[in-house]
Amino acid sequence: MESGRYTKAIKTFTGLANSAPSADNYFYLGYAQLKAGETDAAKQSFEKGASLADKKNVLNNVGLGAVALAKKDRATAKTQIDQALDATKSKNIDVLLRAGEAYTLFETNDPAEAIRILEIADKLDKKNQNAEIEMVLGDAYMLKNDGGNAVSKYENALQITPNSAEANYKIGKTFLRGKNYKLAQENYEKAIAADPEFAPTYEDLAEAFLGSRAYKNAAKNMDLYVQKSETTDSDKLLRSAQFDFLAGDNARAIQKLDALKGKINNPVINRIYGWAYNNMGKSDEAIQSLNTFMQQAPDKIIFDDYKFLGRAYAQKGTPEGDSLALINLEKAAPLDSTENLYREIGKTYYGAKKFDKAVAAYKRAIAVDTNKATTNDYFQLGMSNYLLASRVGKDSTMLMNGDTAAIRQAKDMYYAAADSALTKVSQITPDWSPAYYFRASTSYFSDTKGAMSTGAPVPFYEKYLEVADKEIAADPAKKEANKRYMMTAYKFLSSYYANKNEAVKSREYLTKAAELDPADKDVQNALNPPAPATKPGAKKPAAKATK
After folding, report:
1. Phi first, then psi: what are they for 54, rounded to 5°?
2. What is the per-residue pLDDT for 546?
3. Which pairs count as long-range contacts for 153-160, CB under 8 Å and 24+ apart, including other chains?
4. Which of 34, 183, 221, 454 would disulfide-bridge 42, Cβ 3.0–4.6 Å?
5. pLDDT for residue 448
6. How far apart are CA 208 and CA 221, in angstroms?
7. Is residue 47 within a helix (H) or strand (E), and if so which, with residue range?
């Protein structure tokens, strides 16, 4: 039982109680049942034990007081525990210990009363031999959020029993409560070294790894807890499935959830089903599970539920799915501190060609954590503005009542925003070509004086070609992806330099274009203009007369 193997302990004490019914055997059976959360069974055992006990043996009465505390009946609990203490004149260490412990076990705890009773027991333990008193005193101080005194008591227990897995485990628990995951893990490792079969350590070690976001280690240790404790507690098994989900083993999580079906009355099972199904690409199952969970437990909904429901809807790839995805992702995004969901929102709006909303989403994605904003954040912001500019005056929602000046002003605003974002891309990743190409395009379309005349896009096209050549040299597969953009750049530059009467430079770009795409007729015609056709009936000039 000290190793947290309550199922096995209950089985053992049941055998003892049946074969040798006694007050003590029924007390330990009830105590194990109480620790396992089997309150009603514990009450029956304590009642049976009390009926067999003599007047001096009041441990079962303390057990009944503990049952009352478990059932949140503090008045009955106090009466029963006080009567037991009075019956022994507060001089029985075992009774004092269990009475003090009872006030630490449940939500209706009373750490001050526990400490008062346990300090009496501690004084009676004149040779300081009872480590359990120190241990439970530590538990009481933990409940008072007094970690310093709690650790001191656990360390006292270690002085009495230097190789105590439980004491090291509880010191680790103190650090876990303070979210000092590293020290918690160190003390749990000491507990495991002292007793590899002390099951509670693995459960808390799993939680410590969870706090460190070491999800695979968390899942591994939760499995060890289930294995060593032999627990059948459905909530613990559900937690184990949740750890598998976090570790990325969605199939295993589903397998564990399937094993719990019909055995658990906890709506969270549908949450974990929904999360895992979403990650497995089973959008219909995920949507059904998460909607069921939200209907069953609206008070337990957290932003992750909206996040995974939004992602499940997005997987459907339909306009209705996208719409529902955005509704749910918008709910989750302001609360999610681990993932920047505004990126997903921006991507969905961009895919739906709602560029104004994509702009807003990517701006928020960058604002959430500007220091961690990525090249892609700025590129998508730039492209959304670029495409938005192209719609001004054409899209039915952006006609500006046909006001030419307003249209021009709006275009200038969006092109300027696009250029600003794309410039940021080049500053972050100067060796990435697309930003230069679209800066050239932005410059081309925003130049009201005529880009061919001003040459505003020229430096951007030239930089684009320089960087693209390097990319292709490093990875020839990128040649095909760049081909269309490079041809546009070559043709513009060739025409620009031809207009400036720089024939050599113009031909240089035409030649490169011909090398890249020999089938391009425009380029071939520019390089090799066809001979003028001879007019029908035209006479050859007469040969010059010779003497």
Report:
1. -85, 180
2. 34
3. 156/128, 156/131, 157/131, 157/132, 160/128, 160/129, 160/130, 160/131, 160/134
4. 34
5. 85
6. 10
7. helix 39-52
Tell me the two tokens of residue 544.
């010059």
Residue type at 290 in one-letter notation: L
Q: What are the Cα distances from residue 189, in Å, to 51, 184, 213, 341, 434? A: 44, 9, 18, 37, 51
Taken in order 259, 264, 269, 270, the sign of the CA dihedral is positive
**3-state secondary structure at position 153:** helix
Residue-wise pLDDT tens digits, 274-328: 999 999 999 999 999 999 999 999 999 999 999 999 999 999 999 999 999 999 9
Q: What is the pLDDT of residues 157-174, one digit of tens each?
A: 999 999 899 999 999 999
Which pLDDT score is estimated for 401?
82
Q: How many CB atoms lie within 10 A of CB 193?
A: 11
What region, left, alpha or beta, does residue 261 occupy, with left being phi > 0 and alpha being psi -120 to 50 degrees?
Answer: beta
SS3 of residue 244 by DSSP: helix
CA 117 vs. chain centroid, Å, equals 44
Structure tokens, 316:
């459907």
Please state, in angstroms and rounded to a whole number, the distance separating the CA atoms of residues 501 and 497: 6
At 230, the pLDDT band (50, 70, 90 cuts) reads confident
Region of poorest pLDDT, from 311-320, 388-397, 510-519: 388-397
Provide the total of helices (H) and of strands (E) in the chain, helices listed first.
29, 0
